[in-house]
């Protein structure tokens, strides 16, 4: 058959066009849709009957939202079906509403007070008002915190009356969601529970919950406390005025209705893995063998790294019934980052006595001293100072990190005795055997 010339051209053009469309199709399908599908199928979230019964509440202030919230949204919150965010300023981030913790205050507690300067300023000027020195006053944000506590509880119960558990965390707290669900499922949520990490103020007898670690309240605990407060509103206002921090206020308000804090150390943890001594003993327990439910004081990049590690770990052990322990975090995230020496770095835990003055002369002499003592595992040197320890901790860079002695010793070099790591890990692992397989603190 003879095909006319013109028609041949049309066929050629059609073929080219078809090829182009095909190429475009493959190009487009390799773009967003495919990567979204990939990432969500890569997401490990626990399947637990309690998942929908736990209401997570994130407490924040307008001054830290932009720095700290996005990482939550990209990591742990992807697995949490019910969460609410409370701040001192109502706004929304990526379509997630951030509620004003104080919006119900006039009806709950009476007229506003002088410490509401920051709040009122934000109400008038919005986020743009953050540029002024007034709102950068962190003392004022902290003072406001205790006034936010009770109105937040009211609002949470109003928005989510049916949850069994209400878990409160700060925006720099990391929640190990699978462990939180596993832990809470061991308590009877029909009873009033206040599960937290005990804290002291130095030698002060006042006990309270370490808010950095977060805490869990069962629904009956919140209801009992709020009922009591609405009956004794005047007394409560004076309680708020007399206590200086939200955490102490909470502890006291629950104690007033007969709900004692249940100390869950070391599940709820106020320190980040980098700042934590994994052998720190409290109430006869060390973190190492137990499961972390939270880590407090986490920088955004630390939370991102822990999320990546946790996701990998959960996927690797999926279906095995294994529970992530503090020791897994130490072995996976801390240990690989302990080099022989690190300049401009503070490893933070020094607990051994030392007498040799020569050690103060140089980093090398400080190391020699540490290596000469059988139990020394890490040390830190700054001009004229050598500190040694039998702990193993990572710590932070001295420039912007947590640093006890920043003012006296700006140039700290930390060192670790790497050859002693295996013995430490082995000893710590062996210490878990006396738990007899009981890994959860419930009594
Ligand atoms: C905030 O302050 C900076 C300078 O400190 C200024 O350049 C900027 O325009 C201010 N922004 C607002 C919203 O006022
Ligand atoms: C910060 O706020 C507190 C209480 O609201 C106030 O006493 C203090 O003077 C303020 N500090 C500065 C530097 O403005
Ligand atoms: C951990 O701390 C306890 C004391 O609290 C101590 O007896 C034990 O030797 C320490 N473990 C290691 C491996 O240093």
Automatic annotation (TrEMBL):
<dbReference type="InterPro" id="IPR026050">
    <property type="entry name" value="C1GALT1/C1GALT1_chp1"/>
</dbReference>
<dbReference type="GO" id="GO:0016020">
    <property type="term" value="C:membrane"/>
</dbReference>
<keyword id="KW-0735">Signal-anchor</keyword>
<dbReference type="Pfam" id="PF02434">
    <property type="entry name" value="Fringe"/>
</dbReference>
<feature type="transmembrane region" description="Helical">
    <location>
        <begin position="9"/>
        <end position="28"/>
    </location>
</feature>
<keyword id="KW-0547">Nucleotide-binding</keyword>
<keyword id="KW-0328">Glycosyltransferase</keyword>
<comment type="pathway">
    <text>Protein modification; protein glycosylation.</text>
</comment>
<protein>
    <recommendedName>
        <fullName>N-acetylgalactosaminide beta-1,3-galactosyltransferase</fullName>
        <ecNumber>2.4.1.122</ecNumber>
    </recommendedName>
</protein>
<keyword id="KW-0472">Membrane</keyword>
<keyword id="KW-0812">Transmembrane</keyword>
<comment type="similarity">
    <text>Belongs to the glycosyltransferase 31 family. Beta3-Gal-T subfamily.</text>
</comment>
<dbReference type="InterPro" id="IPR003378">
    <property type="entry name" value="Fringe-like_glycosylTrfase"/>
</dbReference>
<keyword id="KW-1133">Transmembrane helix</keyword>
<keyword id="KW-0808">Transferase</keyword>
<dbReference type="GO" id="GO:0016263">
    <property type="term" value="F:glycoprotein-N-acetylgalactosamine 3-beta-galactosyltransferase activity"/>
</dbReference>
<dbReference type="GO" id="GO:0000166">
    <property type="term" value="F:nucleotide binding"/>
</dbReference>
<feature type="domain" description="Fringe-like glycosyltransferase">
    <location>
        <begin position="159"/>
        <end position="230"/>
    </location>
</feature>
């Amino acid at each position: 058959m003879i095909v006319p010339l013109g028609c041949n051209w049309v066929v050629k053009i059609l073929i080219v066009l078809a090829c182009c469309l095909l190429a475009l199709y493959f190009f487009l399908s390799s773009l967003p849709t495919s990567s979204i599908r990939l990432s969500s199928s890569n997401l490990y979230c626990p399947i637990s009957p309690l998942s929908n019964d736990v209401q997570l509440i994130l407490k924040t202030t307008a001054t830290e939202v932009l720095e700290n919230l996005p990482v939550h949204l990209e990591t742990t919150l992807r697995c949490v079906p019910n969460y609410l965010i409370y701040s001192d300023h109502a706004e929304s981030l990526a379509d997630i509403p951030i509620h004003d913790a104080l919006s119900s205050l006039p009806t709950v507690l009476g007229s506003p007070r002088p410490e509401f300067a920051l709040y009122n300023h934000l109400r008038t000027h919005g986020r743009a008002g953050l540029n002024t020195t007034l709102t950068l006053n962190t003392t004022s944000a902290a003072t406001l915190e205790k006034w936010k506590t009770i109105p937040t509880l009211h609002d949470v119960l109003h928005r989510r009356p049916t949850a069994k558990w209400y878990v409160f965390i700060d925006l720099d707290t990391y929640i190990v969601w699978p462990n939180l669900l596993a832990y809470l499922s061991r308590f009877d949520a029909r009873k009033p529970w206040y599960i937290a990490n005990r804290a002291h103020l130095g030698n002060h007898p006042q006990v309270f919950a370490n808010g950095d670690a977060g805490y869990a309240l069962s629904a009956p605990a919140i209801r009992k406390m709020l009922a009591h407060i609405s009956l004794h509103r005047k007394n409560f206002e004076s309680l708020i005025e007399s206590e200086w921090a939200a955490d102490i206020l909470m502890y006291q308000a629950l104690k007033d209705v007969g709900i004692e804090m249940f100390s869950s150390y070391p599940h709820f943890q106020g320190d980040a893995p980098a700042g934590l001594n994994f052998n720190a003993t409290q109430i006869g327990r060390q973190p190492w063998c137990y499961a972390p439910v939270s880590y407090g004081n986490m920088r955004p990049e630390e939370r991102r790294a822990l999320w990546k590690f946790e996701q990998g770990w959960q996927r690797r052990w999926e279906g095995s019934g294994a529970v992530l322990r503090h020791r897994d975090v130490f072995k996976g995230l801390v240990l690989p980052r302990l080099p022989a020496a690190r300049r401009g770095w503070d490893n933070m835990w020094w607990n051994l006595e030392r007498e040799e003055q020569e050690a103060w002369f140089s980093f090398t002499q400080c190391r020699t001293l540490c290596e000469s003592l059988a139990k020394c595992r890490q040390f830190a040197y700054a001009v004229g100072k050598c500190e040694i320890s039998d702990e193993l901790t990572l710590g932070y860079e001295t420039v912007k990190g947590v640093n006890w002695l920043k003012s006296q010793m700006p140039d700290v070099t930390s060192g670790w005795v790497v050859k002693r790591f295996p013995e430490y890990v082995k000893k710590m692992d062996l210490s878990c055997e006396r738990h007899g397989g009981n890994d959860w603190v419930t009594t």
